[in-house]
Amino acid sequence: MILGIDATRANKPQKTGVEWYSYYLIRALAAEPSQHTIRLYFNSPPEPGLKNLGPHVEYRVLHWPFKYLWTQARLSWEMLINPPDLLFIPAQIIPVLHPTKTVTTIHDVAYKPYPESYRWRSRFYLDFAARLAKRLPLILTVSEFSKKEIVKYYGIPESHISVIPLGFRHETTLPASIVATKFNIKEPYLLYVGRLERKKNVHSIIESFNLVKREDWGTRFRLVLVGVKGYGWMQIENVIKRSPYRDDIKIVGWVTEAEKHTLIAGATALILLSAYEGFGLPLLEAMANQTPAITSDQAALPEVAGTAAIIVPRGNNTAVCNAVHNLVFDAAMREGIVREGMRRIKQYSWERTARMTLEALDALYKRRI
């Protein structure tokens, strides 16, 4: 089998969730023992981490002079004149012309229940992708929650959807002093990692932080926000400006993987209160770095967290403040969460994700449709 993979998201210089999924999965798929040829499609030359993945990996850099429509125009044309046996799209945006055996990963359908958190252009493009996805013989997704949402909003039969959880890679951390100096961060601090956008409920994290700061035990805490600015940033910025503790809120922006893991390792707690998550990778990153997490009872977050995090009701900022208090003063609770996280993280690896993905793709390749 010639397995074609859209590698454009994996090749982005500043990666976030879906880009890292594409990157690590492609590398892990290439490392799996297989008789298949992997053909990677790029819109620009591959970065060093995606080069020299083995003699069974082919590279196709499909040049396109315009900023937009590479997938729908250039990749579609390639599928017409020189298609692979099976095409895998790790990030849902499917070319309008594609082989009969095409598979995509749908990470979530957040724009359906939360349309106000997306620009109209994004909603239009995602709706277009959804119409194409409904015709595919197989959909991959990352959690049981997302599977149910895909069935609910897209009407795709459960039998056409396979759940393959994300993997995890243990990153080397940097000396804490180097990262602290670079970003001017002092302990103790609470940490958020993710895009700074409306659907992530960053405003609720800030309001919870305000409650922590009002307590005698919480006056020394700082809040560190790690991630790029997304849709709804202006509202988040206004919440920060209104906070009486705005001088103790640090916006770091995008960081490298090593910097991110170093910041997680140094935090008193990681806080993730998203209204909607298809998975919630920062929870695994907290577990691996032995940092307790506080997360909401929404979407896939309880599924991923299990008992390795403190789960609070959505919108209950007092519960978040109380959770921070308990992590500061209840050593047994803190140690229990960390211990459970170290046990739970062993379930996740990119090798396992790649193996399950390859098995699903191989089964489809051998199937008559």
List the SSEs and their pairings.
Layout: E1 2-6, H1 17-31, E2 37-42, E3 57-61, H2 70-81, E4 86-89, E5 102-105, H3 120-133, E6 138-141, H4 144-154, E7 161-163, H5 176-183, E8 189-193, H6 202-214, E9 222-226, H7 233-242, E10 249-253, H8 257-266, E11 269-272, H9 281-288, E12 293-296, H10 301-305, E13 310-312, H11 317-329, H12 331-344, H13 350-366
Parallel strand pairs: 1-2, 1-4, 2-3, 4-5, 5-6, 6-7, 8-9, 8-11, 9-10, 11-12, 12-13
Structure description:
Residues 182-338 form the Glycosyl transferase family domain. It comes from Candidatus Komeilibacteria bacterium RIFCSPHIGHO2_01_FULL_52_14. Pfam families: Glyco_transf_4, Glycos_transf_1. It contains 13 helices and 13 strands. It folds into 2 domains: 2-167 and 349-366, Rossmann fold; 176-347, Glycogen Phosphorylase B (Rossmann fold, 3-Layer(aba) Sandwich). The model has no long low-confidence stretch (mean pLDDT 95). The two termini are 16 Å apart. The strands form 2 sheets. The protein has a 7-stranded parallel beta sheet. It is an alpha/beta fold. Helix 1 packs across helix 13 (350-366) and helix 6 (202-214) packs across helix 11 (317-329).
Kindly list the characteristics that best describe this protein.
2 domains, seven-stranded parallel beta sheet, 369 residues, six-stranded parallel beta sheet, globular, 13 helices, Rossmann fold, alpha/beta
How widely separated are the two ends? 16 Å
DSSP strand tally: 13
- The CATH C-level name of the largest domain is Alpha Beta
**Computed CA radius of gyration, to the nearest angstrom:** 21 Å
